[in-house]
Amino acid sequence: MEEVIGNYEFATTNRTLMKLDGSVHPTLNKSSIIAVLEDLPAQASTNSQTLTESPSRESNQNTTSTCLVVDGMAVVQEIMAVKPLKNCKELADAYVTHIDAKGHNYDITRVIFDNYVVEVSLKEATQDRCRGSKAPVKGYVVEDATKIKNVKSFLGSTTTKANLTLFLARKLIDHAKVHVITATHQGVMSNRAGNITPGVSTQEADMLMILHAVEAAKAGSIVHIYSQETDVLLLAFRHVPLLEQKAKALCKWNALTGCDTTGYIWGKSKKACLEAFLNEKSSIVLAISSLGIESGVSGPSEDIIEGCISFLCGLFRKKGIEATNPHSLRWTLFKQQRIDKGIELLPPTNGSWKKHILRAHCQCVVWEQDLIVCPMTTDPLMFGWIKEVDHLVPQLSKIPPAPTAVVELVRCTCGASNPIAVNKCTSGRCSCKLNSLVCTELCRCEAAIDICQNINSDILNPTDD
After folding, report:
1. Where are the alpha helices (DSSP H) in 176-249?
2. What is the per-residue pLDDT across 207-265, written as a single tens digit (0 to 9) for each?
3. 116 CB burial (10 A radius; 0-12, 13-18, 19+)
4. Cα distance between residue 245 and residue 202, in whole Å
5. Do 115 and 251 belong to one domain?
6. What predicted TM-score, i.e. pTM, was given to this entire model?
7. For the chain, which residues score pLDDT lower than 50?
8. Is residue 401 situated within a structural domain?
9. Rounded to an integer, what is the distance from CA 172 to the centroid of its chain?
10. Which of 24, 139, 245, 365 could disulfide-link to 159, CB 3.0 to 4.6 Å?
11. 225 lies in a domain?
């Protein structure tokens, strides 16, 4: 019994890592990270001030200019959230005015737009999930006369957003009063003469903002970053010399406990996960900070995986429980459960945690290349993702949901009152479907191809092995 409970999920999803439809949980409480960081002891907060305070020019004789790095699409969302706009000309006028207002105290304002033309990216799955549907959304050709009837549908297409970034970048170059540099998927432009670095990049906005910020800092500028993304803040921490290892590893911790692509750990707030991380021993911090460093197909080492699993198990250990691995933790928690509670309440198995860690590693490989103009692409299918049609979905585990002997004992009684009924086993009343298992010959429906709707696809489409 212990081996079965400890090693098998008894379902094709685990609610800790996924929703019932198999997609990852959207991360909704990332802003709580900032609140925890602000409450850190004086020494830690003093270090973090190198990012948040505005140093005077007199304090640094080598500094000759100031630079503001702006998340371009964050400004779009900010404007459209508070002001109704009839068309793209009104949006462009408001956008230029907004950038002029933000950048008037800076020598240079760099406006960074996201890359919406990257195919089969991790962010693609996130964008589809945020849109709330996998149905195609109409794309718009963006020009002055393009009407904006509904903000959500207008920004729902990556094609529209790609066109919008080019449109707004051009407007800034033509009409902004401040010194502006824009970066889009087509290239970098400036409304002032001079050499611009870095040049065209295939990076997404989060990393590209860091790349531009570091380039400006190297040139001697005081750099401020304007973004609504917590990911950008955590990425910036990696490049602050005074911060300790834990602060620099926060972006890796973020991927492990739930960023936009990996999904949050259900039932565990980002605040609780961060407090646990800040109290972890150095060996665990080292394991988490090592995610993404090895970019080969082999993925993270076993030591890194074990360190990450130890941290994740610690999030679920109740007082008095000393279990340090998923197997013993699941068994201990199962024995403590009330009799009316199901196995689905248990934390993930070792196999499921490994797939989750691979997904976190995949995201960290991307973040590790935040200072590379044209980073190496990583195949997500090698790291815990599978492809369904043209979308990426997380893989739960390589281990089957349940032992073969147990699967054969689960059998439904669908159609018992009406043996000749068709379309059986379509609802939650089917015990097999309820347990995310396919029907077998032991069921009342007999897994008949012509009447059962819960059959293994391999039966319908056999393959030659």
Report:
1. 205-218, 230-237, 245-248
2. 999 999 999 999 899 999 999 888 999 999 999 877 788 888 999 999 999 888 898 89
3. buried
4. 29
5. no
6. 0.79
7. 42-61, 120, 126-127, 130-133, 458-465
8. no
9. 30
10. 139
11. no
